[in-house]
Amino acid sequence: MVNAIKGVFITCDIPMAQFIVNMNNSMPSSQKFIIHVLDSTHLFVQPHVEQMIRSAVAEFRDQNSYEKPT
Amino acid sequence: MPQVKIIAKNFMDMVASLTAIKLDKLYNNVFICEAILRSLPPLAKKYVLQFLFTDEPVPAKDIKEWVLADGVSKHGVAIDRLIQLRIFTETVVTVDRKKETCYSLNPTFQKNLQKHIISGGVLPREPMNSNNAIKLPSLQELETYALQQWECFLLQLINSGQGEKLTGISSSMMKVFQRGLLSQRDRDGPRLTESGFQFLLMDTNAQLWYIIREYISNAEERDVDPADLISFLLELSFHVTGEAYNLNTLTDVQRTTLKDLADLGLVKLQQGRKDSWFIPTKLATNLSVSLADSSVRKEGYVMMETNFRMYAYSTSKLQCEILRLFARIEYQLPNLIACAITKESLYNAFDNGITSEQIITFLQQNSHPRCADRVPSIPENVTDQIRLWESDLKRIEMTQAHFYDEFPSKDVFDGACNFTRQLGGLLWEDSKRMRLVVKSEVHNQMREYLHTHSK
Lengths: 70, 455
Known about the structure:
Chain A: Keywords: DNA damage, DNA repair, Nucleus, Transcription, Transcription regulation. By secondary structure, chain A is of the alpha+beta class.
């Protein structure tokens, strides 16, 4: 019988995918959210983590930029 | 995020949305007929001219035979447009006991246009004689006046709270214009909305369009008939820039309208000893021209360097405000604004809903004449970097989806793949291990499909 799982499908570049995989690995096992790593640029994750991933990526981006003081 | 887009819709879309009776009334005016003819898509224009001296209705079938097979969609658009504007009237005639749809031109429209083509157009009012002691401003002066007035208006529009009253536009009118561009929050004062930011980056004509559109749609609240207003504005666009026209040729409604238009810089009002007159500016005469080909090239003022620094030769406060939307203002000299485009300033802009394309077009449109001659006018590394920074924000794409595996056979899997592909819902497939991901929207259809096919 065909099996269906609800979730969020993520398309991104390879470094981003690695970032998300790494994020998943650093979580305690009860909070792991990746259901399947489909291939190097596609992931399938739990439906509720969309916002969490976005904010983590934004935070990562902010750490990498430097604003000149006025 | 709701996508609010300000589209500078054409005048004619507005005309088309009028009621039938009002439209028929509009066509009594020769100028409107001409303006509308100008605005039509090329094929529709051709049909009108072809029909111009035909008195009998022409069967729809015959018209369709005029076009080649690959022009059918254009034909459809043209006919729709003509019917929408009530230039074509549809009638059903019985020929040989068969019912056929026929088209004929709106008689008033036809008569007026015929007259116009044969005898040439006469302006709704004659310009005043230039010798009766009127000192007319030169075209150059007039243009400066128009742009100054417009800028004044824009500045008041975005700075609504602060700043003294600059133009004569009533505050209630101003509220109408600000609707949609500013969000009114009591605590931190009015703030520009996403569409407000986009509005500021548009070129003058597109902005003018937006404002005029608001002005017209608000007409009924001021007890002015929108049809009258449209016909007056179209009429105005046929006047000659820089000529003086006497005010006593206008009705009362038109005169009050004219006062508002003067505040926007569309006309300049002058008063002599005995009578007063108005002089249309370029902004007014460009009104009826379709948007695409009317973008007047303004003198640019922005110089962009390859090191992301930007020098804007401008004294205008408004332009400083606009640059502030996406750049970091470093210092200001009396005639120069020095700023830099940084990742942070751009992220700010992107947060406010401005896209990289809008910023780049704005920079290109406003580049200093010395830079504008260069190809490309904006250094390529800057435009590329702006786009890269934007795409950096969109590195992850997320879609609500369902994941399927454990298909009983290859046939069912392939069938399911094709089925979802046809629905446009297939996101990912792995034929080796028979797994696929589809959008959540098609999950229910997919379930039904699998139910019937997996038996």
